[in-house]
Every structure is written in C-alpha cells, then in structure tokens.
Amino acid sequence: MDNISVLIRCRNEERWIGHSIQSVIDTFDKPEIVVVNNNSTDDSMGIVKMFKRDKKLDVGKNYTDIKIYDIDGYSPGKSLNYGVTKCSNDYVLVLSAHCVLDKVNFDKIKSSLSQYCVVGGKQIPIWNGKKISRRYVWSNFIDKDDINLFSKNENRYFLHNAFCFYSRDYLIEHPFNEQLSGKEDRYWAKDIADRGDLYLYEPQLQVEHYYTK
C-alpha cells in the first residue's frame, strides 16, 4: 500500500473525474483519495462512488479508499486546507479533477520531498482530445528541472496545484491563504521562497491536463 493521499477538489467534473481517479488507481497501490466537493449539481459524486472500496469485500485494484466531504463558502485555499486535514498518509498529491496521470515515479518523489517542500510536474494541455500549444500559463511547464521556478510571463514564482506532491506535515504547518479567490498556489510559492525554502519543478513527472472553460 502506497503511503499517499490524493486530494481532488471537485465542482461539476463528471466529464473527467472518473478518468482522473482511474489513473490514480492504476498508478498507486491502494491510495487514499480525498474528494472535496464544492456543491456539484451533476453526477460527479455518483461517478466518484463507483470507485469506492467496500471494506467487506475483496475487490482487488479496481477500487480504493475514497472519502467525500462537502464544503460551503468555497475558496481554493480553504478547500485544500480542509482536505489536507482529512488525509491520513504522509504524502499528499493535489490533483485536478480533470488531470490524468501519465508519468509518475513515486520513489523518486519521496526522495525529492526530503529536500524540497513540494514537487510539481509537467502538464500537457489537451482541448477536446487535441494537444494544444503551450502558450500562456502552459508555457511555464518547461522541459528541464528547475528550483523555485519563476514565470517570466507572470513575473512571479510559479506553482500550479493541478499536479503537485507535498508532505502532509508541511502543508499542515504552512497552509494556503483562504482569502484568495484564485492563484493560491502562486502566492504560497512566493511565501515559501521568501522563507528560504525550496520547491522543485520536475518535468519527468507528467499529467495530461484536459483543459476546461
């Protein structure tokens, strides 16, 4: 059993969340998945529950331990901070509900997290099944390792919480700003860099990010 909790925020993600969860189950051994549901009105939660393991039955790798929590007064930081408190394992993957894992080396990630406070990977943008040009935000996902990655386009430190690995203890000690309506990851990265801590961008880790409006 891999010592990892996968934290997924969700609002009306029925199109992709099943693909996302399936990729998690295919990549890790019996991961814990924590879903923070922001008042979804579609069938997102019904799809999530299809993967939930019944502990009374031996159902193999097709199911896993899934916890679902509803949240009101949503903000990105609030949902993440709350979700982390519900995670049981030492390592936390923050994953977008419309990202599908492609390349993950968990042993290497755990080793990196002994030196860095977060490890983020490369995201391949896909729109309606087609890979799209890496412009705008996507241009930040470069092809080489970088420490405390700085975005020239945005003129600030760059971190993207659609695909980031953390140690749970570090997130408990250093939570996200709950007052922000977006880009909580960029502000968090600045705070980390200003504190003198290091985070790692590692393009050998990769997801397909199914871009949505």
Query: Which structural class matches the secondary elements?
Result: alpha/beta
Instruction: Point out poorly predicted stretches.
Output: none
Number of helices: 6
Q: Biggest sheet, open or closed, and with what strands and sense?
A: 10 strands, mixed
**Distance, first to last CA:** 36 Å
Rounded to an integer in angstroms, the radius of gyration calculated over CA atoms is 16 Å
Shape, principal axes of CA atoms = globular
The whole-number mean of residue pLDDT values reads 95
Give the topology string: H per helix, E per strand: EHEHEHEEHEEEEEEHHE
- How many DSSP-defined strands? 12
Percent of residues in helices: 10-25%
Strand content: 25-35%
Could you give a short description of this structure?
The chain is α/β, with parallel strands linked by helices. It contains 6 helices and 12 strands. Helix content is 24%, strand content 30%.
Topology (elements, then pairings):
Blueprint: E1 4-10, H1 17-27, E2 32-37, H2 44-49, E3 65-70, H3 76-85, E4 91-95, E5 99-103, H4 106-112, E6 118-127, E7 130-131, E8 146-147, E9 150-151, E10 156-157, E11 163-167, H5 168-173, H6 184-195, E12 200-210
Parallel strand pairs: 1-2, 1-4, 2-3, 6-12
Antiparallel strand pairs: 4-11, 5-12, 6-7, 6-11, 8-12, 9-10
Word description of this protein:
This protein has 213 residues and is an alpha/beta fold. It is 24% helix and 30% strand. The protein is built from six helices and twelve strands. It has helices at 17-27, 44-49, 76-85, 106-112, 168-173, 184-195, and strands spanning 4-10, 32-37, 65-70, 91-95, 99-103, 118-127, 130-131, 146-147, 150-151, 156-157, 163-167, 200-210. Strands 1, 2, 3, 4, 5, 6, 7, 8, 11 and 12 form a ten-stranded mixed sheet that branches. A two-stranded antiparallel sheet has the order 9-10. Strand 1, helix 1 and strand 2 (32-37) form a beta-alpha-beta unit. The radius of gyration is 16 Å and the shape is globular. The mean pLDDT is 95.
